Amino acid sequence: MATSIHLDTVRKEFRTLGNTHVAVDDLSLDIPEGSFTTFVGPSGCGKTTTLRMLAGLETPTSGTVSFGDEDVTDLPPQERNVSMVFQSIALYPHMSVRENIGYGLKIHGVPKAERDERIDEAAEVLQIEAQLEKMPAELSGGQQQRVALGGAFVQDPDVLLLDEPMSDLDAKLKSDLRVEIQRLHQELDTTVVYVTHDQTEAMTMSDQVVLLRDGELAQVDPPKQLFDYPNSEYVAQFIGMPSTNVVDCAVEHRDGETVLVGPGFELSLPAGVDAPTAGRVRLGIRPQYLDVGSAGACRLSVDVEVVETLGTESVVHGRLEDGTPFDVVSDAVDDAVAGDRLDVSFDLADAFVFGEDGETILFGSERAGERSSSPAGTGGVTP
Ligand code: ATP
Fold first, then answer.
1. Does 328 share its domain with 223?
2. Ligand 1 pocket by C-beta < 6 Å: which residues?
């Protein structure tokens, strides 16, 4: 039966050659019962170490891990009802797919008839019924990973831990398996914790996403909330593809107004915003929220360097006049080529403002309509 998970100031230090490395730094977190929670972040940020502490494969240096009301911090893996699937596919080569999936049940003494029933059910959900009597070597990588998932699924765990189970698969298999894993979660009464460095996986599958940075919690929220309300420049840049454009701006005060002055544009902030009275801030604008042309109140020009055509839309990689990298995603730039100057615009509602410490000080969407921006530019692509 699914369980909630609670981490209370969990810390993991590794000591090597006289050095202490903090892999997980006082992490406190609630994972709701039955949810699909994804840990995401760059390599080395502590995702796998956290997952291994949930599995009981690592013991925290300090802090506690609880499943429901039970403190499991010091319980070994076999005393937690947890199944884990790793990145490297671990199947027994001399056993058939059916035997591989049922192995965990067999060593727990589950009778053959019940085993077969549960294996057939798992195979149906994972669409590998036709492979049940084959040997692992006869399967593709994607099918093998489905078998590994099946082996975890049939054990009916309280907690299913998945550590980058798709990272060795190609893009098409990944997108198929993303759907299978979500289907599996719907079938299971289990709490799923998934680790990936791929934010697309995190955003598409999860009820909540835990973004880590250097072992610390950067933000935990449902995917849409994380996308719309990143609490820092780090989160805004990690979540979303291509990454959020971030532009350095000077803060100026004119006639009681706060104006952000960037390369080739100015943006006036609404009264009452807790912006610095002087100095610099960073302005964040998602590439998808830029309008090609002059429909938005704040206009700027992008020197086009590379255009990637994705079918329904194109990604323009370019630079602002001071050389700041700046990307635009739009279905209206089919004709743009390297060397063009692309005029784009945005509204305050589409922007974030980050302070010098990287924290978000303004979500434009919350202040939209309170203030407009000053125009500069015409719109459209100019050669
Ligand atoms: P990746 O995406 O590359 O797998 P990760 O976010 O899962 O990275 P972890 O594997 O949790 O990161 O590692 C976190 C940090 O702890 C890294 O700096 C890593 O080198 C270190 N680390 C992990 N395991 C050990 C260990 N057994 N001994 C020493 N250091 C370790």
1. no
2. 14, 16, 21, 23, 41, 43-49, 197
Helix, strand, or coil here: 276? coil
- Pocket test residue of 14, 19, 58 for ligand 1, highest count of atoms within 8 A of CB: 14
Looking up residue 33, the CATH number of its domain turns out to be: 3.40.50.300
| DSSP-assigned beta bridge partners for residue 247 | 283
Q: Which atom of ligand 1 is nearest to the CA of 24?
A: 14
Q: Which tokens belong to 119? A: 């294996």
Tell me, yes or no, whether 155 and 299 share the same domain: no
Q: If you measure from the C-alpha of residue 48 to the centroid of ligand 1, how many angstroms do you get, rounded to a whole number?
A: 7
Q: Are residues 291 and 225 in the same domain?
A: no
373 assigned to some structural domain: no
Same domain, 219 and 269: no
The reply to whether 333 and 204 lie within a common domain is no
Residue-number span of the structural domain to which 140 is assigned: 3-231
Q: Structure pTM?
A: 0.88
- Out of 46-55, 123-132, 156-165, give the one with best mean pLDDT: 46-55
333 and 221 housed in the same domain? no
pLDDT at residue 274, rounded to an integer? 64
The model's pLDDT over 181-221, given as tens digits with 9 standing for 90+, comes to: 888 888 888 999 999 988 888 999 999 999 999 999 999 99
The verdict on residue 321 lying in a domain is: yes
Which region holds residue 328: left if phi is over 0, alpha if psi is between -120 and 50, else beta? beta
- Specify whether the CB–CB gap between 148 and 85 falls below 8 A: yes
What is the position in ligand 1's atom list of the atom closest to the CA of 197?
A: 2
User: Are 356 and 211 in the same domain?
Assistant: no
Residue by residue, DSSP assigns 180-234 as HHHHHHHHS-SEEEEEES-HHHHHHH-SEEEEEETTEEEEEE-HHHHHH--SBHH
- For residue 277, the model assigns a pLDDT of 65
| 101: nearest Cα among 55, 136, 57 | 136
Q: Which atom of ligand 1 is nearest to the CA of 46?
A: 11
pLDDT in tens, 303-338: 999 999 988 899 999 999 999 999 999 998 878 889
CATH number at residue 358: 2.40.50.140
- Residue 34's nearest CA partner among 149, 181, 193 is 193
Digit-coded pLDDT (tens) for 6-31: 999 999 999 988 899 999 999 999 99
